[in-house]
Amino acid sequence: MSQFLIVFALYPGVTHLDFTGPHQVLVRTPNSKVIAASIGGQDIDAEGLTFANLTDLAAIERCDVLCVPGGFGTTDAMLDEAFMAQIRRLGAGATYITSVCTGSLILGAAGFLTGRRATSHWAWKDLLTPFGAIVTDGRVVRDGNVFTGGGVTAGIDFALTLLTELAGQDYAEGVQLGLEYAPAPPFERGRPELARPEVLADVKARLASAIAPRTEAAERAASLAVRD
Description:
Blueprint: E1 4-9, H1 16-26, E2 32-38, E3 44-46, E4 49-51, E5 55-56, E6 65-68, H2 74-77, H3 81-93, E7 96-100, H4 103-109, E8 117-118, E9 134-135, E10 140-143, E11 146-149, H5 154-167, H6 169-178, H7 197-227
Parallel strand pairs: 1-2, 1-6, 2-5, 6-7, 7-11, 8-9
Antiparallel strand pairs: 3-4, 10-11
């Protein structure tokens, strides 16, 4: 029996937990091989960490699962023609097309979210609209073979959801137990509707400088997708 192939597509400026969280779960998928890849196999810097010894995306013939993590680098990645060409190619043949956080914007730019329910990080999910996605609240959203996770830490929940699909609930529960994934945060403030107003305002202020360029990039990527 051939191995089930799971590919994480990385790019400069990826958020490392968007990648490493689900990787920690999915690397335990039975009879599977997990590959981290980038354009040209280039090293990827991610907030002080460097991911090296990566596979060249173009050298991967096919995959069963394509996962695209998010990050501030999404703004440039969804306009990177070489990167997007590989996302479209691999996604077209994948059994499951998936993302974490703003990785869903890349899926949208690749044309995989038209008419699909999808989510993203709370601060950016409305940018899915230009891609024809049906913006949906939810930590993990599934529409057919498309799985999208919310912001950053939702990647672990997404991965356990996908692992349940791939290996069954008993197996997924065992992985969760083995990883002792039993979230008990010191504050129940991890969503904007739960945050104190002053904290929410501060976070929005810190994100403000990224809003215009990312919105412009999303709109441009959407227009390119339509022409394609």
